[in-house]
Amino acid sequence: MLLAAAPKVKRVGVLGDSTAPIVVRSSLREAVRRSVAQYQVEARFAEVASPEEIEPAISRLAKEGSQGLVVMGGLMLRGTSGGAS
Questions:
Q1: Is residue 1 a part of any domain in this protein?
Q2: Helices and strands (DSSP H and E) totals, the chain
Q3: 57 found inside a domain
Q4: Spatial distance between the Cα atoms of 17 and 76, rounded to a whole number of angstroms
Q5: Could you give the residue ranges of the DSSP H alpha helices within 1-85?
Q6: pTM of the complete model
Q7: What confidence tens digit (pLDDT) does each residue in 42-85 have?
Q8: Of the candidates 29, 28, 20, which has an alpha carbon nearest to the alpha carbon of residue 49?
Q9: Gap between the terminal Cα atoms of the chain
């Protein structure tokens, strides 16, 4: 969907949850790799374990030249500041 909205994107940042089970993370990464290969797009991955890690991860992806962001399904981080979990 990102490429339909922004067809000139050549590098995509992918944000995932490092606390998800490894089998889930591996499966999602493999699906992303297949998709980017099909559309001749490069993917940069970042994984976060807490809400506080999201902004630095996105900043790093931007510094690496990511032109768009995909949040992998299942990004369910638990907050540490009294929010719902």
A1: no
A2: 3, 3
A3: yes
A4: 7
A5: 2-5, 22-39, 54-63
A6: 0.79
A7: 999 999 999 899 999 999 999 999 999 999 876 666 554 444 43
A8: 20
A9: 29
